Amino acid sequence: MGPAEVTVVTLHAEKVALKTELPGRTTASLSSEVRPQITGIVKARTFEEGARVKAGQVLYQIEPAQYRAAVAGAEADLASAKASLEASKLKDERYAGLAKIEGVSKQEADDARLMHEQMVASVSQKVAALEMARINLGYTSIVAPISGHISKSSVTAGALVTANQPQALATIRALDPIYVDLTESNEQRLRLRAQVGSGALQAGSTAVKLLLPDGSTYAQEGALEFAEVAVDEATGTVTLRAKFPNPDDVLLPGMYVRAILDEAVDQSAILAPQQGISHDAKGNATAMVVGADGKAELRTVTANRTIGDRWLVEDGLKDGDKLIVEGTNKIGPGMPVHGTEQGSAAAPGAPAGAPAAPAAQGSGSAASGH
Q: Regarding the domain delimited by 36-63+140-167, which CATH topology (the fold level of the hierarchy) does it fall under?
């Protein structure tokens, strides 16, 4: 019998972006809980729940009557202290002159000077008290600390609120831009860093694409900001943060999403058609190639990732190998074979005049496979 007819694909090294799909959740880039800094009765709520508010916008008005009275009292105390200061100053100056001609005792002159200094300190205290009263009066208008979307209000007009109470009156979240916190296994990250460090792979870009819960792709492209410097002891994962523009508020805090990252670039990747890779009884990935002597050769390969419709072969195959993709059921290792390139008119099962099959692209979503 002559050599068995088989269909082969000649493998060529090519540049491939290694994409990784990671789960994550969205979180607001800024978040602020609004709380009162004084005690009082809420006079009015001045915002629409769920609306966008600006930093400095008045959200709540607390009844200001008692705080205005406190300001008036502090102003009166300051005026009294200033009058006393003027009187003590005149007495101090007069006694200082009399002491020089021994018109008063030195003790009396010293007492007058000390009284003047005390009144200077008293005026400073009254100035500080007035400033504090004015600050508290300003706190009767509760303003937005940041710009963003505001939640529903936890109180209505007429409610009593207290300074620094644990319950927030409302929460403001800035949604443009928005963060996406991703989780990646520590083992996967260490393996990738080792490959990049050894020169086997090049570091990828920081661009990130997002898959929404309904399966659609988010229109805006994000960028990887940073990775945590600690591993979560409970899950063994590292958190990565990406930032996305969100002008139309499509992304909301707490959404579960999946992100696609170009973590690395393989400049000489070997991509093998899936029909050319099989598994033995032990689960090891194997491939049949046409050897230099024209005989079928069985190889054990390492292929843990798919790129589109092809396996990314990390070990076992090299550039120029002729991988058998059809006819493996009628051959065995060491048997002579005659290989015809897939897509050619002479390939087994190919109709006359059939065009050559287009070469698979080296890009696409990466999925775990073994």
A: OB fold (Dihydrolipoamide Acetyltransferase, E2P) (2.40.50)
Within a 10 A sphere around the Cβ of 213, how many other Cβ atoms? 9
* φ and ψ of 58, to 5 deg: -70, 125
Q: What is the largest CA-CA distance in the chain?
A: 143
Q: What is the CATH number of domain 66-138?
A: 1.10.287.470
Q: Which residue has the higher pLDDT, 359 or 88?
A: 88
Q: Has domain 4-26+177-368 been given CATH number 2.40.420.20?
A: yes
What span, in angstroms and rounded, lies between the C-alpha atoms of 339 and 320? 14
- Residue 113's pLDDT band (boundaries 50, 70, 90)? confident
Residue 204: the pLDDT is 56
362 φ, ψ (degrees, to nearest 5): -90, 40
DSSP assignment of 260-325 equals EEEEEEEEEEEEEEGGGEEE-TTS-EEEEEE-TTSBEEEEE-B--EEETTEEEE-BS--TT-EEEE
SS3 25: strand
More confident position, 225 or 51:
51
Helix (H) or strand (E) holding 150, with range, is strand 148-150
Q: How far apart are CA 153 and CA 146, in angstroms?
A: 16
Backbone angles phi, psi at 248, to 5 degrees: -100, 10
Hey, where are the domains in the chain?
4-26+177-368, 36-63+140-167, 66-138
- How far apart CA 256 and CA 212 sit, in angstroms, is 8
Give the per-residue pLDDT at 300: 87
Is the per-residue pLDDT at 336 higher than 80? yes
Tokens of 365: 């979503």
- CA–CA dist 179, 149 (Å, integer): 15
